[in-house]
Design a protein that fits this description.
Elements: H1 2-8, E1 21-31, E2 36-42, E3 45-53, H2 59-75, E4 85-91, H3 97-100, E5 108-114, E6 119-120, H4 121-129, H5 136-159, E7 162-163, E8 172-179, E9 182-189, E10 196-201, E11 204-207, H6 223-238, H7 249-264, H8 268-273, H9 276-284, H10 291-299, H11 311-322, H12 329-332, E12 336-337
Antiparallel strand pairs: 1-2, 2-3, 3-5, 4-5, 6-8, 7-10, 8-9, 9-12, 10-11
Length: 360
């Protein structure tokens, strides 16, 4: 079994042992396309454990499915911006979660991740929308500040030449954290299974390995990602290799969709059908959005990738419009100030950020 996991994870520093992991089958915390995530522990610290049935995937498909997690674990090391897999564990059938649940035993791979306190942005969005009496200006201010924090996370991974490629409100975790006498929001990106890194191809920086597996979260996937998936399927049916070129701009589109959805209250399906002029009209009707941000926010969801701004440009513009000084101690600590009333909607208070990682 160890030899099998070494075929998938070539960096042995990320290979864990099942004796180091506990999984609480009574506490599932989520489910994705390739497995269920449970609360557990790793080396006596809180962890989230994604359980994958190896029999459901060929070795090649499994390596493609977790390839992003492997690369992110190796290259992304900021506990302020991301939570990545810290250990990959091969589990024999007789120790499998399937057996513990009363199902036929099957060999599994466990992806052990840091347990991130707080709530997903999806949960936060739902709860904030449910407050009809909330002042519109306050709602907009908190939304922009939360998404400014997310833009910092995105700019960080892009600065490391990585794209997330499955950015959605489900893959953004939020928590409230106190710093001194004030409090603020901390956001972190999770689920890097689809992540890809950039490489020079034909004189342009494009994402490597995008023909293997592409996650298409409805409403958030960029137009070029949808086209890439269609090209991949067509090429697979024809028995040929597809030639797909994606860039970091795919993440900017997803970010823009999330931000527009939060600000306008429109569904992603409705937003996708709007042209630039109509989107601008709806955005301008939102109280509290600085005028200098209107065109920038809408440009994030332009059809052509080259017409979108970079994550760094979005982050800078949001920071300037909000009057946030990135050189301040709170900003450098990953905390973006928000009003105290927002604390209960932003998840559990985080007193400190700790990176659970076997390589550090």
């Amino acid at each position: 079994m160890d030899a099998d996991i070494k075929d998938l994870v070539t960096d042995e520093s990320f290979i864990g042992n099942s004796s180091e992991v506990t999984v609480d089958i009574r506490r599932p915390v989520g489910a994705g396309g390739i497995g269920t995530v449970y609360f557990g522990t790793f080396r006596h610290k809180a962890a989230a454990v994604k359980v994958i049935d190896r029999k459901k995937h060929s070795a090649m498909d499994l390596k493609a499915l977790i390839g992003g997690d492997i690369r992110a674990a190796r290259d992304l090391h900021s506990p302020m911006h991301v939570a990545t897999v810290c250990a990959f564990v091969a589990v024999p059938s007789d120790e499998s979660i399937a057996k513990k649940l009363g199902h036929p035993p099957t060999p599994e791979v466990w992806l052990v991740m840091e347990h991130v306190e707080g709530k997903s942005l999806t949960q936060v969005m739902s709860e904030v929308v449910s407050i009809p009496a909330l002042d519109p200006l306050e709602r907009t201010s908190v939304t922009l500040r939360v998404m400014y924090s997310v833009s910092k996370d995105l700019a960080y991974i892009h600065s490391r030449d990585y794209a997330h490629l499955d950015l959605s409100s489900n893959n953004i975790m939020c928590a409230y954290r106190r710093t001194g006498g004030a409090g603020g929001v901390v956001t972190r990106l999770i689920d890097f299974g689809s992540a890809r890194y950039t490489g020079a191809v034909g004189g342009a920086d494009v994402l490597v390995g995008t023909c293997s597996v592409l996650a298409l979260t409805q409403g958030y996937a960029s137009p070029e990602m949808v086209e890439a998936a269609e090209a991949k399927n067509a090429a697979s049916a024809a028995g040929v290799v597809c030639d797909v070129k994606l860039t970091l701009a795919a993440d900017v589109y997803s970010f823009g969709m999330i931000l527009l959805q939060m600000l306008t209250g429109k569904t992603t399906a409705a937003l996708a059908k709007m042209n630039t002029a109509v989107t601008l009209k709806h955005l301008r009707a939102v109280a509290g959005v600085p005028a200098e941000l209107h065109s920038l926010i809408v440009s994030c969801v332009e059809y052509e990738p080259e017409d979108r701004p970079t994550a760094a440009a979005v982050c800078g513009a949001l920071g300037r419009a909000l009057g946030i000084d990135d050189s301040s101690s709170s900003s450098s600590d990953g905390v973006v100030s928000v009003p105290g009333w927002a604390a209960r909607f932003l998840g559990a208070e985080v007193l400190r950020l700790s990176l659970l990682c076997v390589c550090c």
